[in-house]
Design brief:
By secondary structure, this protein is of the alpha+beta class. Helices cover 52% and strands 20% of the residues. The longest helix has 47 residues.
């Protein structure tokens, strides 16, 4: 009993000091109140040693100083703060109001309501205490006030926190609170809905595209969303109301988490390694520090981690903004979305800070500036990612086109050595697909072209002049072959070996055109002070093997078969018969439109390398018009003489050829037959001798 009496005496002494100390303190009048911020109407006492208990404070009201800030803000400090104010209801009846401390990241909040010197309500809450101890189940700290008319009350707070200490206080009527709460929840629902939609949308894109920028972006959005849930108090209310220690620990973890993935996203999105290598190294190092800090946040005290994090934010923001500007100036177009997104977020943070400091008024825009800024940032970065994909796609397509052009150029270059037609015949898409040993058997027309008496001609020229001579000749003849569906298989000194995978008509037309163009060539070499030249063309048709020989390191194309050898021998006979174009019987048999051509059969011959005799024809379409007419006029008599020669009636054949020579002295074939007959006299003529 004695102890109870002592306590009552002490309490009466405390109440005396309270009534004495509070004299002269301003009173907050309640009359027609809807909503009122009272930051500048409260009195504050800082307890730097954290050793003042309630009894000490009740004796120390004279030490309180009036707040000069709309929202008292003390930053990071180890001190605890006592807040005091008086309130008077001048309404005609009892008023039910809410006192709201709307900064949910305070570790300890002790609330005392005093009536006539008596503590009539005491609530101990904060984000380090279980959520169930709050008077009203809400993300902010809400205290119910039932104020009787014309009655004065005193309210006392004690606030302590390892984080930033801000004390935004307002008095609000039930009606206004419910109206604003309804709007806020609607806006917050839209905000978090946007965040979730952006996460799901970009997750789908990440799965489809497999671009790690999307993964970093998704984790960054998740970090922003979780930080916002924690910062606004929703996470504590809805996710871990029974785990306040975890809530404080996860706050510092998520801050570092979102900065880390914002950094990784920036490194990748802005192509910093390529475009800003120095800033890349700095930001990469800073990311390592942030990662370590994120891990340590699960171990070390919140106040240590949050300070390190705070000191990391400023250089991080400076680096990423510099990187955005530099990469944009270097031509990286998606950076414009990045710069705009971060600018809007920073502006929203500045607006929120100015509103918290009371410099800007409290309204819809300032209250939700952080949500608006972060939502716009997320949307703009998403647009930037889409633009980045388009730019990378364009670059990839441009690179592929350049690669294709290079490949085409290479193929064109290769085709100078390995004709494109060769790949077609081998059923290959490109020259690059051809391998050693690829071959095919086909019926093909082979054309050999040779400059007569080239050896003698080359003795008149230097080595350089010889090359110029040949290149001039090949430059004129090659297009003719290509235009007649043929291709050059190889150059053999002054010889051209061409292949025609088509009707013999094309090869024969080509031979005639080459003879016609020889006139142009002779005009060119005339300027080189060289004598005019003549050519011989041999054409054969038949089966041969067309393919590749060599190894992986050295590959060449070739055609192999008796058809090739015979064509080469026929071409050599043009020198003996002095006939420009000679064909085998096999080639003549395959001509589709024989009526187009002037053909004259020659004596059967046995060419070198063959046992059997072969039939051979002269085509004189390329002769001068007068010579063509003469040969056509004498064709029947010529055929009669040839028949007699082949049947060994040399005497009568000789008479006919002599008569033909009189009729057409320029007919070189007739001249050859006469010379042969005269050389062997009355012996059996063997014109098939290989020496011919």
């Amino acid at each position: 009993m004695k102890q109870i009496k002592i306590i009552k005496i002490i309490l009466m002494i405390f109440l005396y000091f309270i009534s004495y100390s509070l004299e002269g303190k301003d009173v907050i009048i309640i009359k027609d109140l809807k909503e009122k911020n009272i930051g500048k109407e409260v009195y504050i006492l800082e307890d730097k040693e954290n050793n003042k208990d309630l009894s000490t404070i009740l004796k120390s009201f004279h030490q309180f100083e009036r707040s000069k800030q709309e929202i008292p803000n003390f930053g990071y400090t180890n001190s605890s703060f006592w807040i005091y104010f008086k309130i008077l209801n001048e309404e005609k009846d009892t008023q039910k109001l809410l006192l709201e401390l709307y900064y949910p990241l305070l570790d300890e909040v002790d609330y005392y309501l005093i009536d006539n010197g008596k503590i009539i309500k005491e609530i101990k809450t904060g984000d380090r205490r279980l959520f169930k101890y709050r008077e009203i189940y809400h993300k902010n700290f809400l205290f119910l006030l039932e104020l009787e008319k014309n009655k004065e009350y005193e309210i006392l707070f004690r606030v302590k926190s390892e984080g930033s200490i801000q004390i935004p206080l307002r008095l609000v009527s039930y009606k206004v609170f419910l109206e604003k709460e309804h709007i806020e929840q609607f806006i917050q629902g839209i905000y978090y809905g946007v965040m979730i939609v952006m996460i799901l949308y970009n997750l789908f894109l990440f799965i489809s595209i497999r671009d790690k920028s999307y993964l970093y972006y998704i984790l960054y959005i998740f970090g922003i969303m979780m930080f916002s849930l924690i910062f606004t108090g929703y996470a504590y209310e809805l996710l871990w109301p029974e785990a306040p220690i975890f809530g404080n620990m996860i706050l510092s973890f998520m801050v570092n988490f979102l900065i880390l993935f914002a950094g990784l996203f920036s490194l990748n999105f802005l192509r910093m390694k390529e475009l800003t290598p120095i800033l890349y190294k700095i930001l990469f190092g800073l990311n390592i520090v942030i990662f370590i800090n994120m891990i340590l946040s699960l171990i070390l005290a919140y106040k240590i981690i949050i300070k390190i994090t705070t000191y990391s934010v400023l250089p991080f923001v400076v680096i990423v903004m510099m990187a955005g500007i530099i990469t944009f100036r270097k031509g990286w177009k998606p950076a414009r979305f990045y710069i705009l997104a971060w600018t809007l977020l920073l502006i929203s943070m500045v607006i929120l800070a100015l509103k918290q400091l009371g410099i800007l008024p409290s309204n819809f825009f300032t209250n939700y500036s952080l949500q608006i800024g972060s939502a716009l940032e997320v949307v703009l970065l998403s647009l930037g990612l889409a633009d980045r994909i388009n730019v990378l796609k364009e670059e990839r397509e441009r690179a592929q086109q350049e690669l294709l052009n290079t490949k085409i150029l290479m193929l064109d270059s290769f085709s100078r050595f390995v004709p494109k037609h060769f790949t077609t015949i081998l059923h290959k898409e490109t020259i690059l697909d051809i391998k050693p040993g690829d071959a095919i058997e086909k019926e093909i027309t082979v054309l050999f072209n040779d400059i007569k008496k080239f050896s003698t001609l080359s003795e008149m020229m230097s080595v350089r002049e010889t090359f110029e001579f040949l290149n001039t000749y090949f430059e004129i003849m090659n297009p003719i072959i290509l235009n007649h569906r043929g291709f050059i298989d190889k150059f053999i000194g002054d010889e051209i070996m061409a292949i025609f995978d088509c009707e013999v008509d094309y090869a024969l037309d080509c031979a005639i055109a080459m003879r016609m163009r020889l006139v142009e060539f002779n005009k060119r070499i005339e300027k080189m002070n060289l004598p005019q030249v003549d050519m011989g063309i041999g054409i054969n048709h038949g089966k041969l093997m067309l393919g590749t020989v060599g190894s992986k390191e050295r590959l060449d194309t070739t055609v192999v078969g008796d058809t090739v050898n015979t064509a080469a021998r026929i071409q050599q006979l043009t020198r003996i018969y002095k006939a420009p174009i000679l064909l085998t019987q096999n080639a003549v048999n395959k001509i589709q439109k024989k009526e187009k051509y002037y053909l004259r059969k020659l004596k059967k011959v046995r060419v070198k390398g063959k046992l059997e005799l072969i039939d051979m024809y002269e085509c004189f379409n390329a002769d001068e018009e007068r010579q063509i007419e003469k040969k056509l006029e004498t064709l029947k008599k010529y055929e009669e003489g040839l028949y007699l020669l082949e049947h060994k009636d040399v005497k009568n054949a000789y008479s006919i050829f002599k008569e033909l020579q009189t009729m057409n002295p320029e007919d070189t074939v007739i001249k050859v037959y006469i010379e042969l007959i005269e050389r062997v006299n009355d012996k059996v003529l063997d014109i098939s001798n290989p020496s011919i």
